[in-house]
Amino acid sequence: MLLQQLVNGIVLGCVYALIAVGYTLVYGVIELINFAHGDIYMLGAFFMYTFLNFGVPFLPSFVLAVICCIIVGILLDIIAYRPVRYADRLAALITAIGMSIFFENIALLIWGADIKRYSREWIPHFFKKLFINLPNEHFQNVFLTVSYLQITIIVLSIILMIILHLIIHKTKMGTAMRAIAQDKRAAALMGIDVNRVISFTFALGSGLAAVAGIFIGMYYNSIYPMMGYIAGIKAFAAAVLGGIGSVPGAMLGGVVLGMAETLGAGYISSAYRHGIAYAAMIFVILFNPAGLMGKRKVDKV
Amino acid sequence: MLELRNVHTFYGKIEALKGINLKVNKGEIVCLIGANGAGKTTTLLTISGIVKPKEGDVIFDGKTINNYSPDKIVKLGIVHVPEGRRIFPELTVEENLILGAYIQKDKQKIKENLEKVFTLFPILKERFKQLGGTMSGGEQQMLAIARGLMSEPKILLLDEPSLGLAPKIVERIFDIITEINSEGTPILLVEQNANMALQISTRGYVIETGKIILEGSSKELLNNDEVKKAYLGE
Ligand SMILES: Nc1ncnc2c1ncn2[C@@H]1O[C@H](COP(=O)(O)OP(=O)(O)OP(=O)(O)O)[C@@H](O)[C@H]1O
Ligand SMILES: [Mg+2]
To answer: Is residue A91 part of a domain?
Structure first.
């Protein structure tokens, strides 16, 4: 039971982490809480659904859905956030909330309010196979099943996080992101096209959110326009938990939250499932506002 | 090569520059001196495209660059080392310098330029892997100038490089500025330390509440009674 909960928690945590880094990246670079970020995750799941529904094979659908989300993320920044970039913080915040509502309504309009499911035949058989299925003849008292889908989520999340880390720390674009996070004006004086780097930041976050949305679509096999709202708040809680602005913090926060949620649901009551995320966030804000890995302002991104 | 013609710059309704005329020719060190809030920084920010003039023209190598974005202006070869250094405190010296060469695509060139700034500032080689923010004020100023040199500027704008530094270090910095200039880079130097600035520059401008009130060769300005009284403390 415990082992099973831990595995489920890690899977969920990886998904939260994938979304949370998007919040933290954007916050780190331009100090904006992108409330519409959870909706990009939702759109990822729906784009995937649409492509699969059109008969596009799994892998191309996956890639296309991610690309679409990246484009939406970039447009979101250019159209909605860029005009208020140097305005009041409140203006940007209200814009973000407005964009979130906008995306949810667009999704309602296009896909309708009822729950959509990926058909069995759309998803490669591989993901349904079990990687571990206990008890067997060697382990008679252990109860644990792990699917290839779960393994894929964990492994791909880890790979994506490593790639993200390398982008941020080893590439010119990543160094420019960190520079902008520290001093936008000085970055512009280096000849950095600040808007382009911010677009890139949105692209990164949106791409990862799309991957998360697609996986959750496959994992729970139920997608709906409001799914981004709850997942968004939880991922945001994870980002706060880890120290908003800190990428390793968001990863850690995501996994901690995923585990807390599954363990809480399993051992206390599944009614508290969502409450645990909020409780964790409030707890952190009260006792350690900088978060698990936050160092207050410094080492953002 | 750089010229400001009747430049007016506003912050909202506040007119910070009220018709600035200023010129920097090839090979010169030109200094711009003035009191707090006179508009020195605004003049440099207007040149580097961070703020836009409402009226007048900024002309570089014959081109009007008023509407260029800051990154385009850097690509033209105008490099602005900002007031208060503004190095990236959470990046290493190395990363700061690499960012200085952001517009340079040629890796080999970046390496050569690194070697060049190391000969000017040997301390930066020693501190290569150190975080910028952990260095002393003087070292940070050197890093800021070195970072500016990494893109091989055609003209260098320096905003109060002596700010908050001990006299010994100020002397070093001014020696280095002279050296950079002697290798061919024209410099527009903004300073409150009028005495030092006038000693190393060819020409100077005096700015007061957004207007140039005096200009001339630095020798003339050093001997000008008004300048002596207001800026040299004599
Ligand atoms: N962002 C801003 N918003 C509004 N007013 C500004 C802004 N920046 C500067 N000012 C005003 O513009 C005028 C010129 O400022 P500027 O910074 O150019 O002066 P300065 O000569 O560089 O002064 P210092 O020697 O103190 O650096 C000042 O009156 C200042 O208050
Ligand atoms: Mg100034």
So the answer is: yes
**Tens digits of residue pLDDT in A178-209:** 999 999 999 999 999 999 999 999 999 999 99
State the DSSP code for B83. T
Q: How many CA atoms lie within 13 A of A61 on its CB side?
A: 22
Burial class for B44, CB neighbours closer than 10 Å (0-12, 13-18, 19+):
buried
- Name the residue facing B151 among A186, A191, A299 (closest C-beta): A191
Q: How far is CA A4 from CA A67, A134, A148, A151, in A?
A: 34, 10, 15, 13
Q: Given A190, A299, A300, which is nearest B102 (Cβ)?
A: A190
Residues B160 and B225 in one domain: yes
Q: What pLDDT does residue A141 have?
A: 81
What residues form DSSP beta bridges with B204?
Answer: B31, B216
Three-state DSSP class for residue B49: coil
**pLDDT single digits (tens) A229-244:** 989 989 988 888 888 8
Give me the number of domains chain B comprises: 2
Q: Tokens for A174, please give them.
A: 């990543």
Which residues sit with their C-beta closer than 6 Å to ligand 1?
B 11, 14, 16, 34, 36-42, 83, 192
Instruction: Judge whether residue A295 has pLDDT over 60.
Output: no
Range of the domain at B91: 86-152
- Residues A190, B82: C-beta atoms closer than 8 Å: no
| Rounded Cα–Cα distance for residues A197 and A192 (Å) | 8
The answer to whether the beta carbons of residues A197 and A184 sit under 8 Å apart is no
Number of structural domains in chain A:
1
Inter-chain CB pairs, A–B, below 8 Å: 66
Query: Is B91–A194 a contact, with Cβ atoms under 8 angstroms apart?
Result: no
Q: Does B102 touch chain A (CB under 8 A)?
A: yes
For residue A59, being part of any structural domain is answered with yes
Atom 18 in ligand 1: which residue has the minimum CA distance? B39
- What is the distance between the alpha carbons of residues B117 and A40, in angstroms, rounded to a whole number? 45
Q: For residue B53, what are the β-bridge partners?
A: B9
The answer to whether the CB of B132 falls within 8 A of the CB of B88 is yes
**B193 plus B142 within the same structural domain:** no
Residue B82: cis peptide before it, omega within 30 degrees of 0 = no
**B80 touches A: beta carbon within 8 Å:** yes
Q: B161 and B52 share a domain?
A: yes
| Chain A residues near residue B79 by CB distance under 8 angstroms | 189
Please identify which residue in the block is written with the tokens 């997608």: A223
pTM of the model: 0.91
Residue B52: what pLDDT?
95
Q: Say how many Å lie between the CA of residue A273 and the centre of ligand 2.
A: 55
Nearest CB partner across the interface for B75, out of A176, A185, A191 = A191
